[in-house]
Amino acid sequence: MITRVSLVSVLLLTGCEEGAFLDTASxxxxxDAVERQTRAPVVKAVVAGNPGxxxxxxxxxxxxxxxxxxxIDSTQETTFDENHQRVxxxxxxxxxxxxxxxxxxxxxxDQGRIIRIxxxxxxxxxxxxVETREYTLSGQLWRTVRDDDADGTPERIDESTWDAxxxxxxxxxxxxxxxxxxxxxxxxxxxxxVLDGRLLRRFNDSGMVQSTRYENEYLxxxxxxRLGIDLQDDGAIDNRVERIYDNEGRMIGSLTDTGADxxxxxxxxxxxxxxxxxxELAIDIGNDGQYDTVIYRDYHxxxxxxxxxx
Length: 310
Known about the structure:
Layout: E1 2-3, E2 6-7, E3 31-32, H1 40-48, E4 58-66, E5 74-80, E6 86-92, E7 101-110, E8 113-121, E9 129-135, E10 141-147, E11 156-162, E12 168-174, E13 183-189, E14 195-204, E15 207-218, E16 224-230, E17 239-245, E18 251-258, E19 266-273, E20 278-285, E21 293-300
Antiparallel strand pairs: 1-19, 2-3, 4-5, 4-21, 5-6, 6-7, 7-8, 8-9, 9-10, 10-11, 11-12, 12-13, 13-14, 14-15, 15-16, 16-17, 17-18, 18-19, 19-20, 20-21
């Protein structure tokens, strides 16, 4: 049994997750019991024939159906270790049933934290990439350095700044490393320590080239209900994203209003298993009642949700 939603009226005809009711009276949306068609039986057949699921480790299989025509166009299969870390990624990029790309990952731990991730493209025993991580004295991730070809020269550096309350207040990205910090995110909090929004700024050698502000609006129960996007940071909201939750606290819909003109332009519809894992995401770009992409998630050998999951 699965939980499914149809976002009806003018909008739509037809883990480890977040949740709690959005008051839909503020939206031109009705939620009803009509179930949209799913390609799950097709997906189950694909997964059942996948030899990668024969071992005892947790495996997440993600299948993408572009066009919602019942044909799987690409597959990603991720294997996790007992610490919920990715150790193997297999990718079938053209849907022919053959994994054209295989990547293995190895983790180095110190004092309960990952300090190094090694990437082996092709899983042939050759080191192809390295990511190192550094932490603050209180344990927050401070610095990540990515060396994509394992030649000793970093391609990307990410750094985070934390305040005395353990809140991240800034993140910075330098890519290519060693030059100008290209991206800054400043995080803004209210008196209740809730994240009110963030300011994104992008730079090049000539200075700042973009400033975009994101504003969060919360529901009475504390869930994020609306995101406002001010693309030019000029005080005018350009895009809005609304979230809809079911009575079990799961996000079942995301509605994007490009232009903030009151018209829904893109719909995301989410389907969950009985235990609460996200199993299906359908995307309708253009709000024409037809899904453009459906993404399925199949879980093999995962612990129950209430015990955590990769």
